[in-house]
Each structure stands twice: as structure tokens, then as C-alpha cells.
Design brief:
The complex is a heterodimer of chains A (about 200) and B (about 325). Chain A has nine helices and seven strands, in the order αββααβααβαβαβαβα. Chain A has about 200 residues and is α/β, with parallel strands linked by helices. Chain A has one domain (about 1-195): Glycerol-3-phosphate (1)-acyltransferase (3-Layer(aba) Sandwich). The longest helix of chain A is centred in the N-terminal third of the chain and has 14 residues, at about 1-15. The radius of gyration of chain A is 16 Å and the shape is globular. The longest helix of chain B has 30 residues, at about 35-65. The chains are: A alpha/beta (about 200), B mainly alpha (about 325).
Chain lengths: ~200, ~325
């Protein structure tokens, strides 16, 4: 609780991360927030931009190879924002990599995911990976909300250690759902476009 | 009167003004009939609300003393630089120079004021920063619009760190016969700058006809500048008893502050437009960002500092 508060304060000081709700309302319904990914600050910025009530029930999905190695980062991920770890390394996976996400959703939590799978150096996102589609298929009751994070690719570009304090605005867009019989490629393109139109 | 006594006398007057302004705002809000006037009144009330906060923070600083004041202005520089650079397109190669601006230049500049090292305070950013930053950017190897990028970073650093740091730097001035009262001089500077801004806004809204520079800042009018500016000079002259100046000396100083502040607002509006924004940010409700409030301070403070230093030391 204390850790979370300090974390949110720090994020506000560094990058502002104030939310703008353009396409939906900040309501306490179960959601998967999906956003463009350009820096290690993204996870924290999106999570901090949520109102406290929603933030308490929302868990960012974090790469185990970056956030899960103990130390300060591990502490922040465990106690600060209660990360759901995802294994990016195929060698070390056992079972379905989406299982931990499904467990969190089954427990009633909302999720934050970055469907590009890795950070892109550009302001606009790369094509999305299939994870978002599979989640939508398995949990049709969950709203999928497109989010766009601006400026952060400049604040902490790939390969940099310290963030430059620049104000980031977190724009929340429309909620999507998987249409009946919608094709995977089709859905992923639609989701991608929903993020791009907020840029 | 002791310095404390003087400070609280002035603050009492400011608080009384704020109470009157808040009451007026409340009455106006109840009487606003159409959407246009309601919008103006809402903005006015947001400004008054923000004023309460700014005055409270200032009071806290004066109570806590020199270190707290320096920390406050360092934070103001930090937020102002953050706003400036958010609107400035930078590239990957600017990352290290930007990190140095935030994490080295800001603490160093305010630390130099804290330890009373005037010589280095005055040249650190304009000489060493000016030369080092482009050199470090060049090491990054990216020559794409190199001059534009370095120029914008230099501008941001000079304006938001160097120029704003001149406000608390008045604590460095050793005016004979005025020892231990420098916080009052800072209060004087801030009051005259801000009251000039407020009165120019009020006079402009009430009597504004002829626009001064419509393409740069549509809200600035000749009537606002003359009416507001001269009234601010009168207020400043009336505050001569908290300064080391005579009555007419104080009027002259206020005139300098008002002119420099006006020019600052004008020049920074032009910078803002060329970056394609209406406000610098959204930090202060009704006012826009930190720089929207400090634009006039950033021009008035260095000029005020050096004129006082030349005239009295």
C-alpha cells in the first residue's frame, strides 16, 4: 500500500501520467487495457493513470525477464503494482504462457497488457501479437480498452538507464469486444487501429 | 518594524485581497447568465483558487527559510523544464544532454545559490552548459537537425533553470543596511510581477480595445498593459518600505519589473505558438502550466537582480 503510493508519486513527478478518458468512463468493470509499448515506464504510467479505486483491482502483465529478477525492480513489481508475470523466453515456458493472465482474470482483476510484446522505438505501435485475441476468446465478458501513451518513447528510449522527465498523457479509448466468428488477423488489426486513432 | 512584521503585514494585505477576490468570484458565478460569461467566470475562479495555493506555498517557504525557498524554486524549474521539453521535439541522441539538464544542471544551479557562490552561479549554465551540451550531443553522432535540437535545449535550460533561479538568487545580494531581509526583496519581486500580470488581465478584460500583438497573444491589449502596468508600478512604489529603495527608487524598480515581465510574457507566447501549443501544460488549474505563470518571472528576475546589484552593491 505504502509502496504503491510512493510509486504513484514518483511516476507523477517524473512523467505526470494523467489519464484522459476519451472513449469510455473510468468505471470499476473488469477490463483488459492494451496499449502501445515504447519504454519501461509504460507499465507504471498506465497503472498510475488509473483512479485509485480501479488501480487496486488492475494488474499489469510484466515480462519475467525484466521485472521478475528480484532486486528493487522485483520489489516494485511484487509489492508496488502486483505484476502478473509472463514468460517471454520459449525455452523456459512450461504450459500455456497465458495461464497466469487467465488466472488473474478469473480472480476478478483487470489487466494491463502490451500486445506488441516488445518495446518499439517509434511513437506508433508495431503489429500486435496474438495474445490479446486469445484472451478475448477465452474471456468474452471482459471489456478490451485501447490506450495510447504519448511522449514516453522520448522519456526513456530503449537502451537508456535514466528517464528524462517529460509529461506523458494517457489516453483511454473505446472498449472493444471480439465479434462473433471474427477472424484473428481482423480482430488484431481492429485493436491496433483503436490504439493508433488515439495517437 | 522587524522583517517578520513587515512580511506578515504584506501577506495580510494579500490575504485580504484574495478574500475579496474569492467573494467577488462567488458573486459573479451566481450572476453569470450565458455560457460565454460563465466560462470567463469559471476560469477566473480557477485562477483565484490557484492563487490561494500559490500564496500558501509561498508562506510556507518564508516560514521555513532559505533552504525551503531554494527547494521550491528548484522544483518550479524542474516542472517548467519538463513542460518546455515535452513540447520540444527531441531525438534519441538528445537523451544524455537532457538527463544532464534535469539531474545535474538544476541541483547544481540551486546549490550554488545555497552556498553563496555568485561567480559560478552567474556563468555556470551560460558558459559551461552552453559549450558542453552541444559537444555531448555531438558525441551521440546524430546530426539530423542538430542545430535546431541543441538550440531548443539551450533555450529551455536558460529560461527555466538559469533565468528562474535568479528569483531566489536575490537572497545572494548583500545590500548594506538591509542584511537579513532579502526574503522580503524576493517577496517584493514576486508580488510586483504577479500583480502586474493580474492587473493587466483585469484591465484588459474590462477596457481592452486595441490588441497589442494579435498574432502572438490575442489577450494582450494596449489598455491592459498601460492600466495594469501603471497600477502595478503604483503598488510596487507603495511597498517601498519593505525594500532597500526610496519611494521613487521603488517606483523605478517596479517599472523595470513590469516592463521585463511584460516582454517575457510576450516572447514566451511567441515561443509557445511556434511549438504549436496554447498553454504550456495543465498543472495549475485555470492558468495552464507552470511556465504560463512563471513566464514573466523568468524575464523580470534576472534584470531585477542585476539592476539591484549594480545600483546598491
Amino acid at each position: 500500500m505504502i509502496t504503491s503510493r510512493i510509486l504513484v508519486g514518483l511516476v507523477r513527478l517524473l512523467v505526470g501520467a494523467h489519464g484522459r478518458w476519451l472513449g469510455c468512463e473510468p468505471k470499476p468493470v473488469q477490463r483488459v487495457y492494451f496499449a502501445n509499448h515504447s519504454s519501461h515506464l509504460d507499465t507504471l504510467a498506465l497503472w498510475a493513470a488509473l483512479p485509485p479505486l480501479l488501480r487496486r483491482r488492475t494488474r499489469p502483465v510484466a515480462a519475467r525477464d525484466y521485472w521478475g529478477n528480484g532486486g528493487l525492480r522485483g520489489f516494485v513489481a511484487e509489492h508496488g503494482f502486483r505484476a502478473v508475470y509472463i514468460e517471454r523466453d520459449r525455452e523456459r515456458r512450461d504450459g500455456d504462457p497465458l495461464d497466469p493472465l487467465c488466472e488473474a482474470l478469473a480472480a476478478g482483476d483487470s489487466l494491463i497488457i502490451f500486445p506488441e510484446g516488445t518495446r518499439s522505438p517509434a511513437p506508433l505501435p508495431q503489429p500486435f501479437k496474438a495474445g490479446l485475441y486469445h484472451l478475448a476468446q477465452r474471456h468474452p465478458q471482459v471489456e478490451l480498452v485501447a490506450v495510447y501513451l504519448d511522449t514516453l518513447h522520448r522519456a526513456m528510449p530503449k537502451g537508456s538507464l535514466l528517464p528524462v522527465p517529460l509529461t506523458c498523457m494517457v489516453r483511454f479509448g473505446r472498449a472493444l469486444r471480439l465479434a462473433e466468428g471474427e477472424h484473428k488477423e481482423c480482430f488484431l488489426q481492429r485493436a491496433h487501429a483503436a490504439v493508433v486513432e488515439l495517437a | 518594524m522587524s522583517p517578520q512584521h513587515k512580511f506578515w503585514t504584506v501577506m495580510g494585505a494579500v490575504l485580504a485581497l484574495l478574500v475579496i477576490a474569492s467573494l467577488l468570484g462567488w458573486v459573479l458565478a451566481r450572476r453569470a447568465r450565458n455560457d460565454g460569461s460563465r466560462e470567463v467566470v469559471t476560469n477566473l475562479n480557477a485562477r483565484i483558487g490557484a492563487w490561494w495555493w500559490m500564496v500558501a506555498i509561498l508562506c510556507g517557504c518564508f516560514l521555513l527559510g532559505r533552504v525551503a525557498t531554494l527547494v521550491l524554486f528548484a522544483l518550479a524549474s524542474f516542472f517548467a523544464l519538463r513542460e518546455f521539453l515535452t513540447l520540444t521535439p527531441t531525438r534519441r541522441g538528445d537523451h544524455l544532454p537532457l538527463v544532464l539538464c534535469f539531474y545535474l544542471a538544476i541541483p547544481l544551479q540551486y546549490w550554488l545559490i545555497g552556498i553563496d557562490w555568485y561567480g559560478l552561479f552567474a556563468i555556470c549554465i551560460p558558459v559551461y552548459g552552453f559549450l558542453l551540451l552541444p559537444a555531448i550531443t555531438a558525441l551521440g553522432g546524430d546530426t539530423e537537425s542538430f542545430l535546431e535540437r541543441t538550440t531548443k535545449i539551450q533555450w529551455g535550460l536558460m529560461l527555466t533553470v538559469y533565468c528562474i533561479s535568479y528569483a531566489p538568487a536575490v537572497l545572494l545580494l548583500h545590500v548594506p543596511g538591509y542584511e537579513g531581509q532579502n526574503l522580503l526583496l524576493l517577496l517584493y519581486l514576486l508580488l510586483v510581477v504577479q500583480i502586474s500580470d493580474v492587473l493587466q488581465y483585469v484591465f484588459g478584460k474590462l477596457f481592452g480595445r486595441r490588441k497589442l500583438a494579435p498574432s502572438v497573444s490575442p489577450s494582450k491589449t494596449v489598455e491592459g498593459l498601460l492600466g495594469g502596468g501603471l497600477s502595478a508600478v503604483a503598488v510596487g512604489a507603495g511597498l517601498w518600505w519593505i525594500t532597500p529603495f526610496s519611494f521613487w527608487g521603488s517606483a523605478g524598480m517596479s517599472l523595470i519589473i513590469v516592463i521585463a515581465g511584460f516582454l517575457g510574457g510576450l516572447a514566451l507566447s511567441a515561443v509557445k505558438r511556434s511549438l504549436g501549443a496554447k498553454d504550456w501544460g495543465h498543472m495549475i488549474e485555470g492558468h495552464g502550466g507552470m511556465l504560463d505563470r512563471l513566464d514573466s518571472v523568468s524575464f523580470a528576475a534576472p534584470v531585477f537582480f542585476h539592476v539591484v546589484r549594480y545600483a546598491l552593491m
